[in-house]
User: What shape does this take?
Amino acid sequence: MSSLKDELIKEVGKRRTFAIISHPDAGKTTLTEKLLLYGGAIHLAGSIKSRKTQRHAVSDWMEIEKQRGISVTSSVLQFDYDGCRINILDTPGHQDFSEDTYRTLMAVDSAVMVIDVAKGVEAQTKKLFKVCKQRNIPIFTFVNKLDHYGKMPLDLMDEIENVLGIRSYPMNWPIGTDGQYMGVYDRRRKKILLFSADTTHGQEARVADVYEPDDPEAIARIGESAYESLQMDIELLDEAGEEFDQEKVDCGELTPMFFGSAMTNFGVQDFLEEFIRLAPTPAPRESSDGLIEPIDEKFSGFIFKIQANMNPAHRDRLAFIRICSGKFERNMEVWHEKSGKMIKLAQPQQFLAQDRQIIDVAYPGDIVGLFDPGIFSIGDTICDPAHKFQFAAFPVFPPEKFARVSAKDTMKRKQFVKGIMQLTQEGAIQLFQQPGAGMESYIVGTVGTLQFEVLEYRLKNEYNVDIEMNMQPYEVARWLAFEDGSEVTPDKLHGADRGMFVYDRKNNPVLLVSNEWALGWILDNNPHLELNPVPFDRKEV
Ligand code: G4P
Assistant: This one.
């Protein structure tokens, strides 16, 4: 075996690349920060009060994020733990999340789903879970805020199964009474872990006292009655619960479930260690030339995100690349399939907490940021010229919000069109046009309203164009086709005026309507019409 192969086997085996998904406020930012704390990437977690400002340092790049105190774009955090290299791809957690959130999930090998113990499965968790489920990637569940009152653990298991359709396997089980849990029982190691009171407000790592399950000292600390109910619960889980099955975990059919509190560091370290043990190393990827194995010596990767203006001092565009096979080396030349050109990968960047660093080498599972010479688009493949192929196309995420956008000053139309085309190419927005409309106004579609704010901000700051934006009362887009293949035009579509008839960038006809009910009417009145939530030649998520 070549020495490069050996190197790849070793490095790929170390990598764990994942995203944390949750509904806003479930504790994703806090958990991320605590994983960095345990990973030694930061030394003191921000206290609850100062965390909002600290957060800027870690993951907020654009000015708009600072203004709103939210994370608009995903960032990548990397640290080493126990001989493993951990890549956390942060996903925007605000309810106005964007397509970036979805796309980030295309670049990970597993996901951690954070659930607030009191709130259970919430709307955004459901959406993100669906994307992970469709990729069949392993999903780990962290039930957070155990220091608070919340739902009963068994009820949460039922909820996850009923709402998300995935069975769970509790890896640990809370000990004590709701709102005053003292620790957890580790089912694999068969140990009791008790936490002493947190005196540092979660700033410092917290170590658990570990006991055998029948240790009298542990029983005395827990109290007879809590100890009895723990025994009953464990018996019930062992007898009536799901069996642990790594294969089911690997294909996303069973979620290992952990209980803890990110804020008070309760169970965070055990979670991290078990996660590293169970989470997958970088997986092979489908391509036009079959599966590409990460230990394949020929380099390959794909672009999952393009971000402009991360640093206001430099007006740069960064393309985020997920490495899929081979070894990445600075200044290497790769084949860019889409343009059919060789490109030199200079100035690659990697992200460690708040610092951007120039890197020399990276391996499958790693994410590198490259200065984009202006030719990359989302989903593009780059690979070794000796083995040219294309990774499977990204799915399209159906837009749910629409606005009519035009330049306030008609003299600025040229910059407006340039900016809007560029942002569409970056994947920041989806673009539609009404029949006959010139370049004066466009219909912009997004999956979250925050994308409109980003659009407005970027057109102003990068293209010096103020825009007029009118939200449209539509929430559903459907690509249209007649069964006989004839062209769909507004006059041939009954009820076209019940919504808005537009064309996408490739001139495919699309109807925007306000709800599913309106769609039903259109279908009833156009018996030979076919409707698709994404372009007919693309895959939906
Ligand atoms: P997000 O990224 O998922 O949106 O959530 P984030 O971590 O920002 O946490 C949301 C709120 O929940 C924060 O409080 C945070 O301190 C709190 N939180 C996170 N983990 C725990 C936990 O284990 N227990 C308890 N009790 N609270 C937790 P906040 O008051 O909204 O913000 P801040 O002032 O603390 O920043």
